[in-house]
Amino acid sequence: MSLVSRVLPRLSRGLNHTAYRPITSFLLVSTPHTFHTTYMMSSPAKRKAETQASPAKAKKPKVQIPEYHLTPSRRDEDGEIVWPAPKAQIERAREIIRECASAQKPTLILPDKDADGLSSGAILHHTLTSLGLSSDLISVYFPPKGSNVHDESTRSTVTELSPAYIFVLDQGSRKTGPFYDASHKCLIIDHHFAEEGGFPEGAEFVTAHDCPPVATSALLTYAICLPLHQDLEDKISWLAALGTHGDLGNTLKWQPPFPDMTATFKRNPKKAINDAVGLVNAPRRSAAYNVQAAWEAVISVEGPQPLLSNEKLRDAQFEVKQETEKWSHVPPKFSRDATIAILTIRSAAQVHPVVATRWAGFLKSDKLEIVMCANEGYLPGKVNFSCRVAKHARARIGDDRVNIIQTLESIVADDPDLRARLGESFARGHKEASGGIINVQEWEEFKKLMGVGENSRKKAETKTPEKKKPAQKNTLQNYFVKAS
Ligand SMILES: [Mn+2]
């Protein structure tokens, strides 16, 4: 799952996508490389109002986030904007795709399971078949619930399929050995942060990560593939929009350097695209984890409209909605020092990130720093937990900033044995949106260390968070830390 596959460090932030939706798209570029470009400013109108009003009653300036597309771009030595990825990488990716199509050999696509990953996969699939690769030769694989593409389960599947070409899309990358031992070509198309050399051995890559405003994987795949065949435009442009709205939210302005998608949105209304994003993202959160159904839906249609009435997608969306509602009213317990609120749920659906996010925006306590939702029912024998920074603690700056990973680590710092048993999937993700997957036994020990329920001052609150308006469900926080 993404939590494991999207290896640290990646983003420096993750926030409640519901409450902070306008920010989330911008956060995508708030990486260690580009964070200096993050600035906040008060609106000119507001500033004007302030100077005219009585200085004694100056209002707090409203924080405004610049539009995503205005993020300063990288330029090459000729002053040309480098976007959505370095030219040489894009050219090389095209070469590999063309070569793959003409080779007529077994080909494997490993797309991520969200709207961006699936769209990226569908764009590549349409491109390869348009270029003449028989669809019989193309396999598409999704690791089962709780696994990721770097797991042993994927390795054995890849070995069995023994593809000559492997395309890894939107998965985040990590430094690993090759996907399997036999000779093959592997191309990674991505937009996540990767450490220097943080790719599987022998793999080639094209990444949007270092070319702000960071494009989505679907948009990057689109930019690579579009010139490869004259018939592709209609087939893939709506998919580029689907994936991009999936990751960046539906308020994105399609302005330079983003391509002009006016014609695409004329054929495929934004409303349909946005509704399709929610539907396509639902199966991976449902108990059945039927990502395959989402893929089949996306690859088989020529636009978003038929997705809106796809029953499998609608059922999954309904289930996830019900589960979220059901588990949003569990009263929290608090750690000994009252800095962590813990919500314990038991759902086979991946609703723990949403529940944590909801409560994080709701609980009011000056002491509270972290809201944790622990799901004891997602994977047998495991506890999957998600942490979010409590709303009131989000304004902290400098050394006072809440660092969830650090806090989680500090709790077990004096117990190296427990820390070792918590394993690699503990405290993963981002400082502001972390989580983990641990065994039940270790979870119990961890709870003891936190002193859950020992805080007498803070009793369970009687109210529960209001259900927010259904907003875009797949933005930064769940996108990057989906499984946390
Ligand atoms: Mn993506």
Automatic annotation (TrEMBL):
Domain DDH: 108-243
Bias (Basic and acidic residues) ranges: 455-469
Stretch list, region Disordered: 42-63, 453-484
PANTHER family the record matches: SINGLE-STRANDED-DNA-SPECIFIC EXONUCLEASE RECJ
Pfam families registered for this protein in UniProt: DHH
Protein name: DHH phosphoesterase
